[in-house]
Design brief:
- The protein has 497 residues and is an alpha+beta fold.
- It has 3 domains: 210 residues, Arp2/3 complex 21 kDa subunit ARPC3; 113 residues; 150 residues, Alpha-Beta Plaits, CATH 3.30.70.270.
- 63% of the residues lie in helices and 8% in strands.
- It contains 17 helices and 9 strands.
- A 5-stranded mixed β-sheet has the order 4-5-3-8-9, sandwiched between helices.
- Strand 4 and strand 5 form a beta hairpin.
Amino acid sequence: MPPDAQVGQEPGAPRPSFARRLALHGCIALLWLLAWGAAHLQQEAPHASLWFPPSGLTFAVGLTLGWRGLPGVVLAGLLATLLDALGDPARPLASELAPGLVFGLTHGCSYILGARLLSRLGQDRPSLRFVSVLLLATPLAATLATASGLLALTAFGVIHSWQHAREIVLPFWIGDLVGTVALGPFFVMVLTALMGLLGTPGPDPLEAHRQVAPAGGDRDALFLKLALCLMPVAFSAGLVAVWPQQAHPASFLVFFGIVPLMWIAHTEGAMRTYAATASLSVVLSGVGAMLGLGPHTVTYQFAMIILSGSAYFGLAVPLLYSDNQALRRLLTTDSLTGAATRAYLLETAERELERARRFGTPLALVLFDLDHFKQVNDQHGHAFGDLALREVAGRCRGELRASDVLGRLGGEEFVALLPMTGLDAATQTAERLAAALRGRPVARGGVRRTVTASFGVVEIDAQRESLEAAFERADQALYEAKAAGRDRVCAGLTTGA
């Protein structure tokens, strides 16, 4: 299935009505025009702004709707061209229709292509791969939009000369790039919410990003961090405005905002990081327009690109923590019963054996196997068997100490590793486990069945015995318990017997 086949609509979901789709495109066009109006805060020259939020919105349209979102973008580009021509007698509105349509198409296609590149090559999570592809796709899309947009506007006479087009290439490209990098993920959040409100829901490009949740839900702490993030911006811009002879070094103080912004990325989750980055971009552009920072505005917009990229890379850290925790659970915990996996149990047993050997402390093994468990599966089904295994593990954990380790060796075979425990105490523990199993039947629906186990107990001779040899003795004791009639405990002989 092509990448766009499921964009904007869940598989098997009813297709939204024409009226709802029309309303969605109208809202996209309205949002685009509002963003276009905001771009005038940093207008460098006619048709060139150092901060162009519509590019971020168009990129977000490509991520959420794919090519289905192009009509709304084209409509917005047409309306923006017509609005730009209002009051200019040299530009009658009728003559602006063609350049407006072409501008909307070139702008929309450039950013939707970049978004599809991100969807194809990136991952749907804020990993290093996703951010790397994001920071590759957005400059490519901005370059394509700049080149095609300026060619179209110049060819139609909206930009009066090729010389003027060449002069505004850099601010045009910077404005598109910073608008895409700083505001693109935030606009994805906005569009996803808007699609839900309009009854035109689709796949959420940031669904996995939402898993990187805030470490705490304290909004006051978030506002404090955001205020700390904005302070270097305000301080730097103020110095540039009142101390123009030192404007160049003072403008670079804005980069100190990376520290609190990374703090937000590490503690506040992906969604709040995207919102904070967008807020910083808006404030930076507003402060720059208010103070009239002139040519130093370029430094601030480059800083915004770097701050945004750093924040997005920062999101990979809590994600890696989460992935490492999930991987550790997978490696150490049996997914069905919650007991330790065989590998983790054996690794722990080797450590405990070394500790017992070093300090001369006792160490015991309790090996047990559920009685006639194949009959349980055959008579009641594997769902009942899985429930029985979970019940066995849960009841046994309730009888063990926090320092003990319960592991599942495989199938219906379990083992309890008992540090600081001699043979007599281990045998008593095994008796408690046996009683906990036979004392209450396992119940599921109308089926009730008592599940018992046979136990083999040994104390490991840490000075002379290997772990493998101890397991062999425990297995022999378990075999003797089964031969004696099952549902009982048999203690193995010591190594010297």
